[in-house]
Amino acid sequence: IKLTNCLVPIMPFLALTYLFIINNENYLYVAKYGSEDLPIRFRISAVWAAREGPLLLWAACCSIISFSNRMFPKNNDTWKRSTKILDGFILCLLLIAATLNPFKLTPKNTLIISAGLNPLLQTNLMVIHPPLIFAFYSVCVWIGCLTISHMINDYKSWDSKDFLDEIRIPAIISFGLGALGIGLGGYWAYTVLDWGGYWAWD
């Protein structure tokens, strides 16, 4: 059951990634953003080139955290409740992704001229940066779930030493992923996109 709870939310992302790897243009999302001329790493990164793929990636990252919570549980109500809250968040992400329909078939007798992956996105940083950022978002959601769960359990002591000790590791992981992801994003913007400064467009 624990493995199933983890695999089910990850399967749509893995399926979409596989469709991009084999460049199955029977699916509209792949036909729009994929290309058989792209190397494998850029075919994979094309999965998160629009809106649908990133939502499935985010759900997959959150489900890995949910799975680890079940594999290495802390024997308290806060931890168990936070995992259930996280599962609810994953469900919301999957429902939003479903409304966008990433597995919509390409209409018959319709010629789709794929622009492929934007040339500015054809860099190793596109392969690394978005997954790091969504892993960062996922750990932040995990911290939020732990906090909400603790406040439900004992609102008056939500800033207690026990609770702060409990979220210390997730907070350190979050800080590390966020610093690395934003740092690489800034480097990408400065060197590859030639914006003339550290996110000077902002």
Description:
The chain has 202 residues and is mainly alpha-helical. It has helices at residues 2-21, 28-33, 40-45, 52-71, 77-100, 124-153, 161-191. Helix 5 (77-100) packs across helix 6 and helix 6 (124-153) packs antiparallel against helix 7.
Brief characterization of the structure:
This protein is mainly alpha-helical and 202 residues long.
Tell me the layout of helices and strands.
Layout: H1 2-21, H2 28-33, H3 40-45, H4 52-71, H5 77-100, H6 124-153, H7 161-191
Helical content class: 55-70%
Strand content: under 5%
Query: Rounded to an integer, what's the Rg over CA atoms?
Result: 19 Å
SSE arrangement, N to C: HHHHHHH
User: What is the overall silhouette?
Assistant: globular
Mean pLDDT: 85
Largest sheet: none
N- and C-termini, Cα separation:
46 Å
- E-strand count: 0
Individual helix count: 7
Uncertain segments are none
Q: Structural class, please?
A: mainly alpha
